Amino acid sequence: MREGIAIAGTVAVDEIKKVRKYPNSSELATIQRVSRSIGGAVSNCAVGLAKMDHELPIEVIALVGKDEKGLFIQDQLATFSNINTKQVHATGVTPFTDVIQDLTDHSRTFFTYRGNSHLFNENTIDFKSLQANLLHIAYILLLDSLDQVDDEYGTKMAKVLKQAQEAGIKTSIDIVSESGNRYSQIVPPSLAYTNYCVVNELEAGKTVGIELRDQQGNLKINELRKVLVRLKELGVQDWVVIHTPEGSFGFDGLHVHSIPSLAIEQAHIQGTVGAGDAYVSGVLYGALKGMELPQAMELGTAAAASSLLAEDSTSGIKPIEQLMNMYQQYAKRETIEI
């Protein structure tokens, strides 16, 4: 009997550097504080889920480097007894990200070295030994080998997702946020073999060619329903969810749901690295446990909010009961009707 979740794809080390204010070109900025944490979807989601539920079976499928950063990642994952790392293999150089956090507005700028991520390909996952009933793969647009064209399925990523579904495993995808116009070509083939698509507003909008923020950065509320429906039409079989700082918006094929974000005071926000992965983890946990979409979105909202209370990706995430209480007890932003 299949049980739990497998998380495959991008793993990295986050080198977090806090500056008073992000500099303009050619200007100097003094680093106020330096810290290190695990990063990337695999590390963030695996550890986040392990902290939510220490009995949940979690399988990690990733490539770490044969270097000090790779050992750091493996040591961090090994601290959780319910994380299975049998499909973590050492090769090449560990990816890392310099995360520059502006202390003025808590915005983040990322400088990523992809390292061995291009080596993660269609043969990396051993489906015969996989025990999970849900496979989450991230990120599309960052795993170069899986972004390659496949004559039958559109992309290699789509082929892997199809293999998972044929093995009786539900699938979930995430996308990396980047500038450029690759979304509409590379993302849609995978959606035809995706059960759960949980992405932010930039990724969702670029995938279907509809911008979800105006030039002033305001959320284009009237376009949200259209984007949700369009993503579902591209083949997502169960849930489409778009998460934003203002709130999250979901579509299960029958109903559209709007869940407000928690109103965390700015003074309490220690960092925003990994909030998106925390949100995804909460929603996928809800899916695994048979929750309805709105309840899963509430859990994702609380997980994302809790991650803001620590400067790294996962330290702030709490057990599932505390997260559910957190959503009920904290003040919320105004619900956005779409």
TrEMBL record:
Keywords: Kinase, Transferase. GO terms for molecular function: kinase activity. Pfam families: PfkB. Transmembrane segments: none annotated. InterPro entries: PfkB_dom, Ribokinase-like. Residues 9-314 form the Carbohydrate kinase PfkB domain. This is Sugar/nucleoside kinase (Ribokinase family). It comes from Caldalkalibacillus horti.
